[in-house]
Amino acid sequence: MKDSVAKSIPLITLVGPPNSGKTTLFNLLSGKNYKTVNYPGSTVEYSTSKFSIKYEVNAEILDSPGIISLIPNSPDEKVSVDSLYFHPRLGSPDIVVCTIDASQLSRHLLLALQLIESQFKLIIVLTMNDILDKKKLKISTERLSGHLNCDVIKVDGRTGNGVKEVIEAINRNLKDLYGNGTTKPKPFDIESGKQGLIESYNKIEIITNDVITELPRKDEIDLTNANKQLKIISTPYIGSKNSPDELTLKIDRILLHKVWGILIFILIMGITFSSIFWLADPLMGIIDSSFSYLANATIEILGHNWLSNLISDGLISGLGSVMVFVPQIIILFLILGILEDTGYLARGAMLIDKPLSKIGLNGRSFVPMLSGFACAIPAMLAARTIPNRRERLLTIFIIPLMSCSARLPVFALLLAYVTPRDKPWIGGFLLAGIYLFSIITSVVVAALINKFRKKLIKTEDNSSFILELPTYKVPKPITLFRNTYSSTKQYILRAGPVILVFSLVIWFLTFFPNTSPKIDTQNLSQDEVIQMERSERLENSFAADLGKIIQPVMKPLGMDWRIGVSLISAFVAREVFVSSLALIFKVTDNEGDIQSSLLSSMNKAEIGNSGQKLFTTSTIVGLIVFFVFALQCLSTVAVSRKETGSWRIPALQLVIFTSLAYLMAFIAVNGLRFFGVS
Amino acid sequence: MKTAADLKFGEKVKINDIDTSNPSHQRIIEFGFTPGQEIELVSKAAFDDPLAFSVRGSLIAMRKKEAGCIIVS
Predict the structure, then answer these.
(1) Which pTM value belongs to this model?
(2) Domain-by-domain residue ranges, chain B?
(3) Cβ contacts (< 8 Å) between A72 and chain B: which residues?
(4) Is the CATH code 3.40.50.970 the one for domain B4-72?
(5) Does B23 sit within 8 Å of A243, measured CB to CB?
(6) Residues 4 to 63 of B: which have CB under 8 A from any A CB?
(7) Exposed e or buried b for every residue in A545-558, given b needs 16+ CB within 10 A?
(8) Contacts of B28 in chain A (CB under 8 A)
(9) What confidence score (pLDDT) does residue A580 get?
(10) How far apart (Å, rounded) are the C-alpha atoms in residues A417 and A427?
(11) A546-573: per-residue pLDDT in tens?
(12) Which domains does chain A carry?
């Protein structure tokens, strides 16, 4: 580690326990150009920004991850704590602003005391004073400031009252620093252990008893005024009176109830899950059709040549396959944000911890797993909230098994093929069955991987579940939208480039070398000619060569190179399987309904010239089983690499899940044939 | 020896000591579970695990195994 970092402007770091209003303060202080970054070589995130112009403070402001103590409890916390002392890019902070939830004063003062002991230049910001008001308690900032020998300021996160005073305190402290020079923080003595912590709390009790006073009730106000004149200070605060929020306790009696709690939990998850699909569906349709409109328009403007093809099929369609999931991602993050900000998410994690701990996971694995049903990429990012490294890696490991929405179009096509036209409900029933099957298999696989974790995950640490259940609150829309925006942006930036690059690669493989195929154009409309050209080109493309190479691999599954090519193309994004099949089977969408013409082509398809049908019940089941297991999504692999810090886990996922998919499909196809199902 | 894991719903007790043999003991103290503090069992998840306690005006959920290191009187 370098000892000095060239620092042009002062660094102000925000520190505080989770739920202490730290990020709200960051949003109040920071300018528009904030960015969220990872500490080098880790998955721990922090945000930095310049101060908002209106405050006229020339300093960098850093929002560090929430910690409850300077004694790290996990590798990620160690990164957070180490970077607080010395940030790899920004150096040591000139001033540390510590946010403290006023209604949790005694618990949150622990971190403040440790920061003072480490000789940081400290400013304390008291948040959530309204909650304390409701309890008829008041904190004297002057007395707290006297005890801690630093500035103490009350800030109202909703109105922004107090921010001006924080700025003044920062300016005052900075001026002070220019006069006396910075003192380097010294690492906190983490060896003091139990005794040290208990001593800190003893100190805290003396402080809290002195600074908290009980507010008079309304009917006593006149009396207090009289008392003030008589110089009688209001009644001293007695620590034991600090009881949790009454309303929160009442709500918890229902939401954490043994029977009702579970039922409400299932209901909330059901609503979350179905709104991801139903609310997003029309929006996804709009995005999908506007991208195909763009792709067609490009061809019309540029004519039929390789460039227009590259732009429309490679670039625009590739971009479309990223953007089509954005509505789902936005809805997912919005709902998760609401659940998080109201305080429900912590309760959900508590309710589900026991069953998940049986398979080596944690209550906190639940949200990432649920997100996995929309898309594995935000799901893997959500796994960062799991403090235990082993449980986080295991969660990331099984996320690709959650049936993500990209599989939905594939299942829809395959189920339509086996469902009688007059009984569409059978399809819905089968789809529910597929989801159930995917949930059961992921549980089984998680249990198995957990069993072999020493070889697979190579991390062993103490599993724990200690979680604060925050007071129920009404979410703040601005914070909600800001977080959703930044998470969605992250998804696009992470998944976008990978999907784009690979769709260009796949485009290249399907377009070359036969760029201008010769076909008999007699009696064909122009659209049909174009469609025929595309099919012809694909049939003689590098992708087809590749498909023919893997023909022997496909044969045991009762499939041929055409399905093989579609499976390869599906590595860009699973739903590409459908469009790729449509291309290979020379389906034109002139008749309006592309699915029904694809279905009839599939019905006619034979393996070679053997007269044997290619798509039978057994091969369809085989394909469904394949898609349930296979990790056919290169962006997931890329994100898994980023989130786990090495290629080990993504490589294992790719190999294990894809070979499992092949094996299970083989068993399904041949098992069905053995029992007489063709 | 009675621990926080043995509490009944709504039972209020004082913490006597924290058993340091539990790997999570330090984190539990950091969350405010110190000798002399009064705690109350406020909720239990299904299967009676994890448990939620009220301590210092906040609610903290933890597994039964972890609550076992909080020795109460």
Answers:
(1) 0.79
(2) 4-72
(3) none
(4) no
(5) no
(6) 18, 20, 23-32, 34-35, 38, 42-47, 49-50, 52, 54, 56-63
(7) eebeeeeeebeebb
(8) 466
(9) 77
(10) 9
(11) 888 888 888 888 888 888 888 887 887 7
(12) 11-229 (3.40.50.300)
